[in-house]
Amino acid sequence: MAHELPQAEVGIFGGSGFYELFEGECEEVLLDTVYGRPSDVYTIGTIGGRRVAFLPRHGRNHSIGPAEVNYRANVYGMKLLGVDKIIGPCSVGSLRLDIHPGDFVICDQFVDRTKDRPDTYFTHDRTLAVQHLSSAEPYCAEMGRIAAQCCRDLGITVHEGGTVVTIQGPRFSTKAESEWFHAMGWDVVNMTQYPECWLARELGIHYCNVSLVTDYDAGCGEHAPVTWEMVQETFAANIEHVRALVGAMVPALPSAIDDGCTGAAGLVE
């Protein structure tokens, strides 16, 4: 099936603002995978001379909640399209007073606090045997270094490295939860990084997180608790920075990355 589809090298998950990055004509591809239907159609085009596949993880009208996203189908579709590197921009809340709204964090660790999300391709009906992969370093270090350097080149305040705790959503954290996350030494909180980044790892796709800080989380007592309106306002004010970063990153990525991210065999049909 995959050889009959248009192919791309880099995948991007994000919101609707990334369509503007494409150079020239684009092609839309609707997939129906063995794991169900992805969040929307994939748009394939060119950025900086590289073929890129884009998918809005919540749908183009933001109609799919974080716990309802079909992460397995989304990532699997990227693999079918030939993608071997994914950039995953997302909005996050800060758990530290020295990480401010408008800052970027290139996370290199996650903590999973979600529940009941299908989070593996290693199921008895799809594989010959259960496979156990290391998740010690779930993010691509080389892509992370490139992202951080591109931020610095663009004059964007960036924190290179950090831990994102992924909560179920769609509700925000209680103050007690947020204070606990802070006490554990975690840096930012989000609703979509898990299992998205891990599923990419299972398929041998290099994944780079780009977190845009939109607010201080509820446990940062010096600030008002986060609201959806606050998140939207800060994200809208900084979307140009996100687009600029992605536009700089894509042509800067190497064709091949050797970091041991081999994934598992026999999963893609």
UniProtKB/TrEMBL annotation:
EC number: 2.4.2.1
Residues noted as binding substrate in the record, renumbered to the chain: 191, 215-217
Major enzyme class: transferase
Catalytic activity: a purine D-ribonucleoside + phosphate = a purine nucleobase + alpha-D-ribose 1-phosphate
Domain Nucleoside phosphorylase: 10-250
Site location (Important for substrate specificity): 173, 228
CDD domains (alphabetical): MTAP_SsMTAPII_like_MTIP
Assembly behavior: Homohexamer. Dimer of a homotrimer.
Misc. comment: Although this enzyme belongs to the family of MTA phosphorylases based on sequence homology, it lacks several conserved amino acids in the substrate binding pocket that confer specificity towards MTA.
Protein name (record): Purine nucleoside phosphorylase
Source organism (scientific name): Kribbibacterium absianum
Lineage, top ranks: Bacteria, Bacillati, Actinomycetota, Coriobacteriia, Coriobacteriales
